[in-house]
Write a structure and sequence with these properties.
There is one protein chain. By secondary structure, the protein is an alpha/beta fold. Helices cover 30% and strands 18% of the residues. Strands 12-11-13-14-8-15-16-17-18 form a 9-stranded mixed beta sheet, sandwiched between helices.
């Protein structure tokens, strides 16, 4: 790094907090370094490091503690699986002591580098943390550091994962569960530097683990997922807790069979086994907006012009990145998720977006998300920026057409474009919502189903998104929003049925889309519902033939003297039309009555 003086962290006497012994699984490394300290300056184990409050560091005591830690109990056994990292030069210590890292002479720059390296290491370890946690292993970042000390260590450590089993229940090859090929992580924060990630396994005494866990399980610096519900309960005894944490031999055998078949590849591991065991495509889904905007997946928002698309995206960013503790609503739906939102704009200047944001400040507080003015910039420029952002909950990119390099009708160009975002989702674990336009056509969009042909790029674009949201202009400052396509398991509750939209009024004073008829409509009689179903069928036929039908006047249905409605009075037809509008099956716009409901709704009355 230009202007940086990188120094070996072990050369700093204050590098390790006082009162703590070296990390147990690194004791071997500590002894080897100590043995060669005469040739390495002050990079060996120092007398002023370790439990100085109890006197100078006692290696014999430490070795004895290691032996006790590895001594198995008679009833329960524990296998510890840990993940370690180090760089080849020694500039970053192999133990997880970032507070002791000296990466730069300047303290402020050093602190910034440490934070960036922490986040990059965390991102690299996250897939393994999630993998072992999904197997039912207790994982915590602080237990590894407290097992030998016998006291709670808030400084950090790990991550380490613990397999608890009865003495004779473990498969012979259980240690292979912690065997995967080491890999390297290139550090963006320190160009030219990389971390090597390696696994390790060690036996853990079950009683020592219980005592350490009783002191509290915390996520730790490198482990942001923690099974806190797996910690001992206040009055829970050792035997009861270990029995609860114990994995049956049959479960361990199944895990090892899948692990062997997958060759220690966690991605392949999720693809092998029974339907219940396989996780591919069946990971828990986290919704930023329940049933509408997912995290960890690609979404597409397709809209006609003047429907409020850009404003809706600004509101979405304000709701997710809100600082307010008040209940938050988006499109009439309560939202609880929070996180960093990044907006990439290829059309609007930052000043225009800021002006929109001001409308939402009173409710959500000052905007704190990222806004990237990418007008005239390439997709490569965008990715260079967003890759540097440590944590992202939602990435919004508007519009697709500005950043798509190539032809939107070329499958290869589209695949290249969407694959970059899908790869980014895998790396960051965030949601991505791309805003897209419809084709220019004389044919008017009348339903959400029309997005199948009207979306630019057609099915090739729609197929690449996990969920597609459509916005239709219904006239009179009215917008319909609905799900055009989705690819989620049936167990997921969607925001609305596919291709059945909800109507919203565009409020020019607040820039919000406000739900229309949010209150439940008054109940209708069975005969009135039958009339409404008949009117809907006739109305659908006439609109499909390009005829304009209005609620009243010379263009209303009663004036047409239709034989299908000959037995209905003018009032009955008007009441049926009013009921259809109230129930959201049709809407009244400048071009007359328009159909919203799918054809099967006409068969609703018998």
């Amino acid at each position: 790094m230009p202007g940086a003086t990188l120094r070996r962290a072990c050369g700093r006497s204050a590098g390790r907090p006082q009162g703590r012994a070296p990390h147990p699984h690194r004791a071997g490394r500590a002894r080897s370094v100590a043995g060669g300290a005469a040739n390495q300056g002050d990079c060996g184990v120092r007398d002023d490091v370790g439990p100085t409050t109890r006197g100078a560091f006692d290696m014999e005591r430490f070795v004895a503690a290691e032996a006790a830690l590895a001594e198995p109990d008679e009833d329960f056994h524990v296998l510890g699986i840990g993940i370690n990292f180090e760089d080849g030069s020694g500039e970053i210590e192999s133990w997880h002591d970032p507070q002791g890292w000296d990466l730069h002479d300047d303290d402020e720059t050093n602190a910034l580098l440490i934070k960036q390296v922490e986040l990059e290491a965390l991102a690299a370890l996250r897939p393994w943390v999630s993998h072992y946690a999904s197997l039912g292993l207790m994982c915590a970042g602080n237990l590894a550091e407290s097992l030998l000390d016998g006291q709670r260590d808030d400084f950090g450590g790990g991550p380490e994962f613990y397999v608890v089993h009865r003495k004779d229940d473990a498969p012979e090859d259980l240690v292979a569960l912690g065997d995967f090929p080491e890999f390297t992580v290139k550090l963006a924060a320190m160009p030219g530097k990389e971390l090597t990630v390696r696994p390790f396994v060690r036996p853990i005494n079950a009683t020592i683990l219980f005592n350490a866990a009783r002191q509290g399980i915390a996520p730790g610096l490198w482990c942001d997922e923690v099974n806190s519900e797996l910690a001992p309960l206040p009055a829970e005894e050792r035997d009861d807790w270990l029995a609860r944490r114990c994995l049956p031999g049959s479960t361990l055998a199944r895990i090892m069979k899948r692990w062997t078949r997958s060759g220690g590849d966690i991605e392949l591991f999720g693809m092998v086994g029974s339907a219940e065991e396989r996780t591919t495509g069946n990971q828990p889904i986290e919704w930023l907006v329940p049933g509408l905007v997912p995290k960890g997946a690609l979404g597409l928002l397709v809209a006609e012009h003047e429907t409020g698309k850009s404003t809706l995206l600004t509101e979405l960013a304000a709701v997710i990145d809100s600082e307010s503790d008040a209940p938050r609503m988006f499109l009439g739906t309560a939202v609880s998720a929070r996180g960093v939102v990044v907006t990439v704009s290829g059309e609007d200047a930052e000043s225009i977006i800021s002006d929109r944001e001001s409308y939402f400040e009173e409710e959500h507080g000052p905007a704190c998300g990222f806004v990237i003015d990418a007008r005239g910039k390439t997709l490569d420029y965008v990715f260079k920026i967003i890759e540097r952002i440590p944590e992202i909950a939602l990435l919004i990119v508007e519009p697709v057409t500005v950043f798509l390099e190539g032809r939107e009708t070329d499958n290869s160009d589209l695949s290249s474009f969407y694959n970059r975002f899908n790869d980014f989702i895998v790396r960051k674990g965030c949601g991505v919502l791309l805003a897209h336009h419809v084709v220019k056509s004389k044919r008017k969009l009348t339903s959400l189903g029309d997005f199948d042909w009207a979306t630019r790029g057609g099915g090739a674009s729609i197929d690449r998104a996990r969920i597609v949201i459509g916005m239709l202009d219904r006239g009179l400052e009215t917008t319909m929003v609905g799900i055009v396509k989705q690819n989620f398991p049936p167990s997921q509750a969607l925001w609305a049925p596919v291709k059945q939209g909800k109507l919203f009024k565009r409020n020019s004073a607040t820039l919000r889309l406000e739900p229309i008829a949010s209150e439940s409509p008054a109940p209708v009689s069975r005969s009135m519902e039958a009339d409404a179903a008949r009117v809907l069928g006739v109305l659908r036929t006439r609109v499909a033939h390009g005829q304009i039908v209005r609620r009243t006047g010379k263009s209303e249905l009663w004036e047409a003297k239709l034989p299908e409605l000959a037995d209905l009075s003018r009032g009955a037809i008007r009441n049926a039309v009013a009921a259809l509008i109230a129930s959201g099956r049709i809407c009244d716009g400048p071009d007359g009555l328009q159909i919203i409901a799918p054809p099967e709704d006409e068969q609703g009355a018998n």
